[in-house]
Amino acid sequence: MVDPIGLALAIAGAVIAAITAGIGSAVGIGTAAQVANGVLAEDPKKFGNVFILVALPGTQGFYGFLGAFLAIMQLGLLGQVNPITFGQGLQMFAACLPVGFAGLASGIWQGRACASGIELVARRAGEGTKAVIFAAMVETYAVLGLLVTIFALMGIKLG
Questions:
Q1: What is the CATH number of the domain that holds 142?
Q2: What pLDDT does residue 2 have?
Q3: Transmembrane segments in this chain: where (predicted)?
Q4: For the segment 1-56, what is each residue's pLDDT rounded down to a tens digit?
């Protein structure tokens, strides 16, 4: 039997995962893009060097979407809805939070790291790899948030 409150909690968790990680990506990309546009106004040839640094914070949004998609698939919302209790819905809600909040924070901070990396590339075009490495270190925490969400969802047995 499907408890409507449990189902609503599970869906709310999926929504929070997607929205918060998406916000982190949007803010991060926006921060990096602002700096990149300033650099490109001076030297349009550096587009290739700064593009990866602008795009990098966008991965958090994908992680949040993946976490939400896995939760929706587990619920069976694309077909017949699996039976879910209030407790299971609460578990699914909690399981979706790590990817959402890790994506929110790391997307914003990765955008800042990328913006600084873009400033480095503006002065020393050959140093782009170092800037990407520093920005990718922030990515680690978004990946860990996704892994926690995946493992937590795997531990919830519905039906």
A1: 1.20.120.610
A2: 83
A3: 51-78, 90-111, 131-156
A4: 789 999 999 999 999 999 999 999 999 999 999 999 999 999 999 999 899 999 99
Task: For the full predicted model, state whether its pTM sits above 0.90.
Answer: yes
For the chain, how many structural domains are there in total?
Answer: 1
User: Which residues form the domain of 27?
Assistant: 4-154
**Rounded-to-integer distance, Cα 10 and Cα 84, Å:** 9
Burial bucket for residue 68 (CB in 10 Å: 0-12, 13-18, 19+)? buried
> Which amino acid makes up residue 39?
V
Q: Position of tokens 């047995």?
A: 157
Judge residue 100's burial from the number of C-beta atoms within 10 Å of its C-beta, 0-12 exposed, 13-18 middle, 19 or more buried: buried
Asked if the model's pLDDT at residue 79 lies above 80, the reply is no
Q: What is the total residue count of the chain?
A: 159
What is the C-alpha to C-alpha distance for residues 98 and 77, in angstroms, rounded to an integer? 22
